[in-house]
Each structure stands twice: as C-alpha cells, then as structure tokens.
C-alpha cells in the first residue's frame, strides 16, 4: 500500500504535494473494498499553479533540441518496460482489471510511448509556392503550448499516455486531471515515470481533484490551448461548450454503442470468440466494446448456442486469479445500476439467455435478446458485462440497425469475403470499423476517434501532430513587391 500512498499526491512543478482542499478523494480497490490511499483534493489555486508552471517550463522545452526531447521519451519507454509488472499490479488493485486486461493496457501504453519517440523528430516546416514573384512561403509546425488532459477511469494509463506522450514529444507541456477512481494509475504513476526519465520540472503536472471543488477552472484557465478529454458524451458536451466559449481546441474521445455484425458466410467459431472478447474485455467497461451483437438470421441459432456457452463459461471474481475473465465493475453504484438495467429489460419483455448474478461489485455476464422495439438499451452505451444479441435479414437491414445509434465510435463485421466486409464497413457512420476482428482496436500509427456523439478530433500517429501543434506562415520577399499605393 506504500506504493499508492507515495504516488497519491498532487504533482506540481516537479514537487509531490498535498492539495489545499478541505476534503479527500478515497482510492478504493473495487474488488475487496480495501482503502488504497486518501488524496486531499486540489483547489483552483493549485490549478493555477500547475498551469503557470507548465507555461513557464514549456517555452524552454519547445526550444530544446528535439533529439534531447526524444532521449527523455526513450528513457520513459525503457522505465515503463522495466516496471511493467508493477504497473500491472497497480491496474489490478486500483481498477479491478484482470491480469490479462492489465497486461493489455501496459503493452498499449508502451507502443504509444514508442511512437512518441519517433514523433519527437516529426514536425517539420514546408516550403510553398506563391502567386507573387520573389516571395518564399514557409509554413512552420509549432507546439500549441500547454495542453489540459482529463482522462477516464477505464484505461487511464493507456488513455493518459495517448495524449501526454505525444504532446511532450512535440514540445508542449501538460497538466493532467485523472479520474477520481484512478488517481495513481492515471496520474501519479505516469508522473513518476517521466520524473525518473529526467523530464524537466513543470512540463508534466498532475491534479487530483473534482469538479465539485474546482468547477470549470481546469477548462476555463487562460493558459491551456487544447483540452483533451476521454469519457462520457454527457460530460464531453459540457467540456466542448465551455472550451469553445474560451476559443480553445478540444479533442474528445467519448461514449460508444458499437456493433459486431456476423454475416451468413462468417467463420462462426472465430466470430464467437471475437464477440466474447469485444463485449467482455474489462467487464465491458470499454467505449469500443460491442454493446450490440448482430447475427444474420440464417446462422443465428448456431451462433447463439456457441456464444451463450462461451459467455456462461467465463470465470467471474477475483481479478488476481489468472483464470478470471470478469472482475469487478469500478464501483457499487455501477454494479447496482447494471443489475437494475437488466431487471428492467427483462420486465419490459427481453429474454435473458444468460443471467449473471451480482456479488458485491462483481457483475456476472448477461446476454439479452428479444428486446422490444424502441428499448433505450438499443441506443445507449452500456458500461458493463451485458450483451445484446439481435438478428437481421440481409446486409441492408444490418446497416440500418448499426447506424441507428447516436454514437459512431467503433464496430466490426465478420464475413468469409474480406472485400465484402470492406464494402459493408464503408456504409457505417463511425470513426473506426474492423473486418474480421474485434471492435476493441488501438494502433499507435492510426487515427483514433469517433463520429456523431462519439467525439471530435483524432489521436495517434499523424493525427496527434494536427491535434497538438499549430501552423505559422512566414513569407520572405527576396525581390520587391509592387504596391497599389
């Protein structure tokens, strides 16, 4: 527990500090309820101190040789690899993630860091032609300055790194507000890695607090030029509106209601495995998770039999058990909400093909089918181990069902003809869609983000250069311009 007590602090201008608020955020293990740490919240005063420290440090960092910036990222990557087991243990304790899920997150964050190493040298200028004789046009890529990052509870180490690492690599400074349920994995742990990697003080700051204490101070502060947020669409709308009022750029990775579609020519066994993983990774608490599983009616009986058997066999319980696939959801409120959601759906006419029990914060998997038309479950995000199984007749109906959602984050289609899958994917309104794979995908080189109410902007690869830099035009007249007066 000393590990959590050590890192459960504010980290401002290179110093580990206690917040000046009047109350504490309690960090609990969601499986056994053990208290991991207590963190006195940061106030608006600390928000200002963190942003001002970032502002001071960023100017020198932007002028630093990019090879020196790259060296810091390389050390951070090496440290992450050396501490992979320790990080995984923290994910299991603080987030209730299984061993498999913890290792998945550490690998993903390592790949993000590896790409950030390359991004340190990526932004370059361009020379563009001019309509005026003798003029040379130079277009420079420059860091935006300071970036505010608000991360989610579900993959806080990976999601935090997706903004923090490239932002630093590109010459920016960062202030992070991790989710209250993940202050260490999403905040202190990342700060310690970069501190030990030799990142100069002030370039990365961590504020553990809540909007009940600071209101919109984190978003409205005049220093940050970009706010990068991962979380619900409800909160994302508020952040977008508040930031827009202050002419700030936003990168929003929001909720999802993804679908995995099984066409009649799919490999059924493989599609079943992909569907189980897509729905139940980290107890289904993933925005890309396959809320809806759509199966062509001609193969629905075969798929349903195999899918429900696989789901019923998933072991639920202690996330420290290497055989466990379903650990706890992140708090008691969510466990109660999921139980009530399933009870209400069954009362409204849905059939539970698999009906899991709720034991503490462990919610066993449930598979629902025959949901009545208009059921709100069909269009909302479900952050938990509840799968909705639906049938369709032909591709056109499948496309209509998939697109009948306010969200457009991810999805997948399974078919024996990959190009048929591509044509299907092209008809879906989403930021990402995958052929013959799971709905849960992330690649550090490929733009990540959603359409509709699933978000604005993209991360990863070249997209982060667009997100965390700005363009400056400089022209040089080597001859003489002719002026009209």
* Largest beta-sheet characterization: 7 strands, mixed
Please count the helical segments.
Answer: 16
The structural class is alpha/beta
Shape annotation: globular
Average of pLDDT? 96
Integer-rounded radius of gyration:
24 Å
Descriptive overview:
This protein is an alpha/beta fold and about 475 residues long. The protein contains 16 helices and 24 strands. The protein has helices at about 1-5, 45-65, 65-80, 85-95, 100-120, 155-170, 185-195, 210-215, 215-220, 235-245, 270-280, 300-310, 330-345, 395-405, 420-425, 460-470, and strands at about 10, 15, 25-30, 35-40, 125-130, 135-145, 145-150, 175, 205, 225-230, 250-255, 260, 290-295, 350-355, 360, 360-365, 365-370, 385-390, 405-410, 410-415, 435, 450, 455, 470-475. It has a seven-stranded mixed β-sheet, sandwiched between helices. A six-stranded mixed β-sheet has the order 9-8-7-10-11-23, with helices on both faces. A three-stranded antiparallel β-sheet has the order 5-6-24. Helix 6 (about 155-170) packs parallel to helix 7 and helix 11 crosses helix 12. The longest helix is centred in the N-terminal third of the chain and has 21 residues, at about 100-120. The N and C termini lie far apart (about 75 Å). The model has no long low-confidence stretch (mean pLDDT about 95).
């Amino acid at each position: 527990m000393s590990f959590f007590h050590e890192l459960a602090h504010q980290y401002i201008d290179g110093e580990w500090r206690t917040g000046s608020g009047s109350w504490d955020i309690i960090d609990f293990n969601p499986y056994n309820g053990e208290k991991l740490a207590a963190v006195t919240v940061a106030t608006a005063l600390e928000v200002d101190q963190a942003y001002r420290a970032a502002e001071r440090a960023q100017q020198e960092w932007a002028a630093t040789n990019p090879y020196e910036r790259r060296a810091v990222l390389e050390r951070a990557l090496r440290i992450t690899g050396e501490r992979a087991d320790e990080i995984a243990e923290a994910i299991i304790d603080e987030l209730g993630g299984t061993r498999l899920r913890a290792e998945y997150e550490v690998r993903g964050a390592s790949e993000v860091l590896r790409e950030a190493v390359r991004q340190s040298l990526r932004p370059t200028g361009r020379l563009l032609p001019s309509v005026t004789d003798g003029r040379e046009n130079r277009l420079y890529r420059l860091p935006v300055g300071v970036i505010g990052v608000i991360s989610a509870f579900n993959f806080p180490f990976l999601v935090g790194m997706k903004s923090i690492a490239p932002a630093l690599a590109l010459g920016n400074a960062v202030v992070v507000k991790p989710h209250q349920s993940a202050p260490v994995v999403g905040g202190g742990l990342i700060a310690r890695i970069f501190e030990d990697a030799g990142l100069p003080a002030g370039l990365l700051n961590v504020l553990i607090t809540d909007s009940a204490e600071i209101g919109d101070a984190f978003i409205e502060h005049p220093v940050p030029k970009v706010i990068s947020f991962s979380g619900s669409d409800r909160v994302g709308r508020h952040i977008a509106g508040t930031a827009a009022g202050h002419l700030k750029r936003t990168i929003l990775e929001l909720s999802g209601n993804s679908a995995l579609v099984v066409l009649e020519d799919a490999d059924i066994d493989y599609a079943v495995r992909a569907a189980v993983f897509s729905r139940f990774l980290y107890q289904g608490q993933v925005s890309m998770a396959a809320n809806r599983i759509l199966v062509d009616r001609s193969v629905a009986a075969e798929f349903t039999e195999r899918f429900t058997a696989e789901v019923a066999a998933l072991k639920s319980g202690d996330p420290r058990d290497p055989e466990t696939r379903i650990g706890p959801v992140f708090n008691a409120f969510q466990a109660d909400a999921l139980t009530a959601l399933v009870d209400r759906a069954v009362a409204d006419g849905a059939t539970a093909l698999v009906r899991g029990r709720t034991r503490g914060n462990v919610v066993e998997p449930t598979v629902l089918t025959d949901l009545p038309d208009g059921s709100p479950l069909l269009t909302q995000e479900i952050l938990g181990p509840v799968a909705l199984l639906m049938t369709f007749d032909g591709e056109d109906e499948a496309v209509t069902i998939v697109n009948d959602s306010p969200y457009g984050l991810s999805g997948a289609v399974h078919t024996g003809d990959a190009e048929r899958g591509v044509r299907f994917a092209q008809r879906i309104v989403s930021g990402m869609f995958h052929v013959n794979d799971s709905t849960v995908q992330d690649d550090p080189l490929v733009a990540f983000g959603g359409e509709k109410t699933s978000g604005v902007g993209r991360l990863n690869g070249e997209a982060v250069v667009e997100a965390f830099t700005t363009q400056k035009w400089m022209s040089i007249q080597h001859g003489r311009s002719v002026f009209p007066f």
